[in-house]
């Protein structure tokens, strides 16, 4: 109940003026000052909502032209937090259920005034709490943003450490130690950033701090940068909390000022060490500044994403060392083509970016088109061996309406991926300019809003593709795949609409929807005598969600489904990026008797290193291996060795993208356990594959 009985601003929808007055009197008699407005039409309701802030809506359930359901729909359409109470003439369970599903807070018989007042008090108290929470959340966000800005802008190298691992570091800290990526640093213990001769002293120092909790303790030691350079530092520690976690604040400072060294550190922090170009971090910072500049000046810019086609196959063919030589040569070729007003950077293993401002996307597109042609015609001499490559390029404009830097990078990546979808360009070697009208596949505005709307309107579909035991054992396995219906009723993947970078809870919502729907369908399917198991894909966001296992436990118990009927599939890249979280995630799933699979395996530099830290039951190799084993003997031997090593480690192996019968003999000889692909069956809405006929 509210501490201060402030005036209640009340909306009433009742065909009877007298009955409406009775409701106002009821609230006044309870000691609440009331300001009421009687709604007579949808236009009247729209005007009232737009012109003031309302605390409560009381609507009588009548058969007038303007129905209570219409009023409730209008409140939801206008996205207003107004508690809605429906007053009925009699108890009707179906009507109650319908109103609650539509969003009403409660349904009360009109003649039960005491009950109505209890409901009103509850809803007003809940409304005040929600408003207070929103205000506090706003203040908290402002405070956190100020603190974060202070940390980021601080010249002091500051980090937060929990259980010996980095959980946050500001730019000064990462630059000091020579790291570009915070995620990379978060995988490295604080101890490993010290020179070997200083590690014992750090252990003793941290133990002393844990015992005394004396803030400001200092230690003179040697730090080791990522380039193996040792620096004399002073390390100070204090107790702190970060993102709700109790941790230790670490501040490192050089023992003496070295301007030349600091300048070198800054240069290295902006540089890709292999190619000598700017790195991704530098380009993203520059892109963020460019977006602001374009918004202020109105002078447009453009961004390009240049990806090497079939890079995995290229690396398998040339080897890592020779691939590095080719990348250096390609970087030199690109460097010779960019103008002074352009920034060229290496974005990832197989991609480069060009940022240009001021310029139009057409100017940059013309340059990129000529680069695509030049690279196609160029012969790269790699230690006496000639090699040819092609590029797929995506270009996007930077205007005053441009999104944030990660989303803009997502646009050019989307355009880059669209090259392979053009007729005759399945292998890439082309360029696409991002046109928002062409790539907007849904009626709704933003991608996240579009997904939310699709979830609410039940426009998600589950498809199932069988996974077959190549040894002929009659096991029934499917992989669940989610699709979303767009405005043309075509199936698309909702994950394609998620932001390409940065955390989002929408991926978790999709994952949970897939898991819940799969559990329901699987439970029904198993009740008909099938011993079926389902592979479920999860995103990096779910891997980091500490509440997922508890939620899953409740869902399994409700469906009376054994945990071993579900196999959760993690991508190798996600597992490597969030190795600590993936290990805990896998452990929590095994405690529920669920199984775990690692997908897209084999593309990392040392894929087996992941398996040293992550307990999985199945390993699904990357689909590129299926394509390569049909073309050369070396790939077949590589797959055979990989499968043998996995099975020696007790892992069951799966090979996806099996599109024809010709590859089956190779997979059988390699000892593969399971296969999956369109040769067996395309994804379909029902689990109807005849495993007895395999």
Describe this structure as you would to a colleague:
This protein is an alpha/beta fold and 694 residues long. 44% of the residues lie in helices and 23% in strands. It is built from 25 helices and 26 strands. The protein has an eight-stranded mixed barrel, surrounded by four helices. A five-stranded parallel sheet has the order 2-1-3-4-5, with helices on both faces. Strands 7-6-10-9-8 form a five-stranded antiparallel sheet. Helix 1 (17-29) links the parallel strand 1 (8-13) and strand 2 (34-38). The N and C termini lie far apart (66 Å). Mean pLDDT is 86; it is low at 441-446.
Which percent band covers the strand fraction? 15-25%
Low-confidence stretches: 441-446
pLDDT average, as an integer? Answer: 86
Terminal CA distance: 66 Å
Major sheet description: 8 strands, mixed, barrel
Shape: globular
Radius of gyration over all CA atoms, rounded: 30 Å
Share of helical residues:
40-55%
Helix count from the secondary structure assignment: 25
Biggest sheet: strand arrangement: 18-19-21-22-23-24-25-26
What class, by secondary structure content? alpha/beta
Please report the total strand number as a whole number.
Answer: 26
Could you outline the blueprint of secondary structure elements for this entry?
Layout: E1 8-13, H1 17-29, E2 34-38, H2 42-51, E3 56-60, H3 68-77, E4 84-88, H4 93-102, E5 106-109, H5 113-153, E6 157-162, E7 165-169, H6 171-177, H7 182-186, H8 196-212, E8 217-224, E9 230-242, E10 245-254, H9 259-269, H10 280-297, E11 301-308, H11 311-318, H12 320-337, E12 342-348, E13 351-356, H13 361-377, E14 380-382, E15 385-387, E16 391-398, H14 405-418, E17 430-433, H15 436-439, H16 447-456, E18 460-469, E19 476-485, E20 491-492, H17 506-526, E21 532-537, H18 540-543, H19 548-559, E22 566-571, H20 572-577, H21 579-591, E23 595-601, H22 607-613, E24 618-621, H23 623-628, H24 633-648, E25 652-655, H25 664-670, E26 674-676
Parallel strand pairs: 1-2, 1-3, 3-4, 4-5, 16-17, 19-21, 21-22, 22-23, 23-24, 24-25, 25-26
Antiparallel strand pairs: 6-7, 6-10, 8-9, 9-10, 11-13, 11-16, 12-13, 14-15, 18-19, 18-26, 19-20
């Amino acid at each position: 109940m509210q501490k201060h009985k402030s005036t209640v601003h009340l909306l009433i929808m009742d065909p009877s003026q007298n009955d409406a007055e009775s409701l106002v009197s009821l609230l006044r008699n309870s000691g609440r000052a009331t300001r009421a407005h009687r709604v007579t039409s949808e236009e009247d309701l729209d005007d009232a909502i737009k012109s003031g802030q309302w605390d409560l809506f009381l609507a009588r359930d009548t058969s007038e032209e303007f129905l209570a359901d219409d009023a409730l729909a209008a409140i939801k359409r206008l996205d207003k937090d107004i508690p809605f109470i429906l007053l009925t003439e009699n108890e009707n369970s179906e009507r109650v259920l319908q109103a609650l599903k539509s969003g009403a807070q409660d349904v009360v018989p009109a003649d039960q005034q005491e009950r109505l007042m209890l409901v009103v008090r509850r809803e007003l108290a809940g409304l005040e709490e929600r408003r207070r929470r929103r205000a506090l959340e706003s203040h908290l966000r402002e405070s956190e943003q100020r603190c974060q800005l202070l940390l980021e802008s601080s010249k002091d190298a500051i980090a937060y450490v929990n259980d010996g691992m980095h959980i946050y570091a500001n730019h000064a800290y990462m630059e000091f130690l020579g790291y570009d990526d915070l995620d990379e640093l978060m995988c490295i213990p604080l101890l490993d950033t010290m020179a070997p001769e200083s590690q014992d002293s750090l252990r003793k120092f941290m133990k002393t701090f844990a015992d005394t909790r004396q803030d400001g303790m200092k230690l003179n030691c040697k730090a080791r940068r990522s380039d193996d350079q040792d620096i004399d530092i002073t390390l100070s520690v204090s107790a702190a909390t970060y993102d709700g976690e109790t941790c230790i604040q670490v501040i490192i400072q050089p023992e003496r000022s070295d301007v030349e060294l600091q300048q070198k550190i800054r240069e290295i922090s902006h540089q890709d060490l292999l190619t000598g170009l700017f790195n991704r971090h530098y380009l993203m910072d520059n892109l963020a500044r460019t977006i602001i500049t374009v918004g202020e000046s109105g002078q447009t810019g453009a961004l390009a994403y240049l990806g090497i086609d079939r890079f995995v196959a290229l690396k398998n063919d040339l080897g890592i060392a020779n691939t590095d030589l080719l990348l250096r040569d390609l970087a030199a070729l690109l460097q010779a083509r960019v103008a002074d007003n352009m920034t060229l950077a290496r974005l990832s293993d197989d991609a480069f970016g060009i940022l240009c401002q001021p310029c139009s996307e057409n100017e940059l597109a013309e340059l990129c088109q000529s680069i695509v042609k030049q690279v196609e015609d160029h012969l790269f001499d790699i230690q006496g061996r000639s090699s040819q490559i092609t590029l797929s390029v995506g270009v996007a404009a930077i205007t005053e309406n441009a999104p944030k830097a990660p989303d803009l990078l997502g646009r050019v990546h989307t355009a880059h991926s669209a090259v392979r979808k053009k007729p005759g360009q399945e292998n890439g070697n082309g360029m696409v300019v991002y046109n928002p009208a062409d790539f907007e596949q849904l009626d709704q505005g933003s991608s996240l809003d579009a997904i939310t709307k699709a979830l609410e309107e039940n426009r998600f579909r589950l498809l199932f593709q069988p996974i077959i035991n190549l040894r002929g054992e009659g096991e029934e396995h499917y992989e669940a795949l989610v699709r979303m219906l767009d405005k043309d009723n075509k199936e698309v993947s909702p994950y394609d609409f998620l932001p390409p970078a940065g955390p989002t809870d929408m991926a978790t919502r999709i994952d949970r929807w897939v898991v819940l729907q799969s559990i329901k369908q699987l439970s029904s399917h198993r009740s008909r005598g099938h011993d079926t198991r389902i592979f479920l894909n999860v995103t990096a966001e779910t891997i980091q969600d500490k509440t997922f296992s508890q939620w899953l436990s409740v869902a399994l118990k409700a469906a009376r489904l054994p945990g071993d009927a579900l196999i959760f599939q993690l991508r190798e890249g996600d597992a490597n990026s969030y190795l600590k979280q993936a290990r805990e995630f896998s452990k929590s799933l095994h405690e529920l008797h669920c199984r775990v699979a690692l997908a897209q395996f084999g593309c990392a530099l040392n894929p087996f290193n992941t398996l040293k830290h992550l307990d999985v039951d199945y390993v699904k190799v990357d689909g590129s291996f299926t394509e390569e084993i049909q073309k050369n003997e070396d790939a077949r031997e590589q797959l055979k060795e990989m499968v043998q090593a996995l099975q020696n480690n007790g892992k069951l192996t799966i090979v996806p993208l099996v599109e024809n019968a010709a590859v089956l003999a190779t997979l059988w000889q390699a000892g593969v356990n399971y296969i999956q692909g369109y040769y067996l069956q395309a994804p379909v809405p029902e689990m109807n594959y005849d495993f007895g006929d395999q």
